[in-house]
Amino acid sequence: MNLLLVNDDGISSPGLYALAGALSRSYAVTVAAPDQNRSAIGHGVTLRSPLFAHRADYPHGVTAWGVSGTPADCTRLGLLNFAPAPVDLVISGPNSGCNLAYDLPYSGTVAAALEAAMMGVKAIALSAPIGADDQQTIQTFLCIFDLLDLENDFDQVLNINIPNLPITEIKGLRWAPLGCNRWEGEYVERDSPEHSSEGELVRVFMPPAHPPVLTPGGPDDWNSLNDGYITLTPLSFRQQQSLEGRREIPWQ
Cα(137)–Cα(95) distance, rounded to whole angstroms? Predict the structure, then answer.
């Protein structure tokens, strides 16, 4: 099986490096990742600027490229230019930070996986909490990977979040719908001498630092992960809602 590994944390991510090494023992692996961290960049693609790529040193002879563009750019370049043979599956991650509920539209990790699906290749988006041990996450993922039926368990993208727990303490795998969360708190103004103009200080706005507001209880992805389960959430790039029962809107 030919695998393409991508991420949004960048080509220097220790987790990506370790995952490539682990998977390359059994599969043909190509890596394409941003040349620097581009977390929370969403599903942007580069249209009006050239893309640059450089070879990166990866283990076991894995061909790896650092790309000047977005995570979605990396998926496209990996599938169209870098992989030496047709890719059977794209794996995006492991991301340092969970991708749950309403976080997904911001996620470059998920966007890179959805871009693969748009190009006709199934993908997995893999995430774990910030601070999770990379080797622990990868060990758990390899066990999940062996259990998955890639042909039948999902159609386009499977979003996987792994709790920050030893594999012996994980309660199991749970198919989980997306939960509800929103990030609250005002932006904070701070003086910034670095961005002053002609000796005048300007005001810069800092991102909110408050935790998200959650919907308590229920079997959704957020609560399931916090309960100690690995969450599995199938995703689709087709975001149109059902048109059944919609009212007819009169024209003129």
Answer: 10
- The pLDDT score that the predictor gives to residue 31 is 98
**DSSP-derived 3-state class of residue 50:** coil
Can you give the pTM of this predicted structure? 0.88
Residue 225 burial (10 A CB sphere; 0-12, 13-18, 19+)? buried
Q: Report, as ranges of residue numbers, the positions in the chain whose pLDDT lies below 50.
A: 201-202, 206, 208-212, 214-215
For residue 181, the model assigns a pLDDT of 74
Contact 93, 125 (CB under 8 A): yes
What are the angstrom distances between the C-alpha of 241 and each of 59, 145, 188, 236, 252? 44, 30, 37, 12, 26
Burial of 97 (0-12, 13-18, 19+ CB in 10 A): buried
Phi, psi of 177 (to 5 degrees): -75, 165
| Percent of the chain that is helix, strand, coil (3-state, to 5) | 25, 30, 45
Length of the chain as a residue count = 252
Q: State the greatest distance between any 2 C-alpha atoms of the chain, in Å, as a whole number.
A: 67
Burial class of residue 83 in the structure, from the number of CB atoms within 10 Å of its CB (0-12 exposed, 13-18 middle, 19+ buried): buried
Strands (E), the chain: 2-6, 28-34, 53-56, 63-67, 89-96, 123-128, 157-161, 172-175, 181-183, 188-197, 200-206, 212-214, 229-235
Q: What is the pLDDT of residue 209?
A: 45
Q: Is there a contact between 82 and 63 (Cβ–Cβ < 8 Å)? A: yes
- Rounded CA separation 230/138 (Å): 13
Q: How many C-beta atoms surround the C-beta of residue 61 within 10 A? A: 7
* Residue 193, pLDDT score: 67
- Give the per-residue pLDDT at 218: 63
Residue 65: strand, helix, or coil: strand
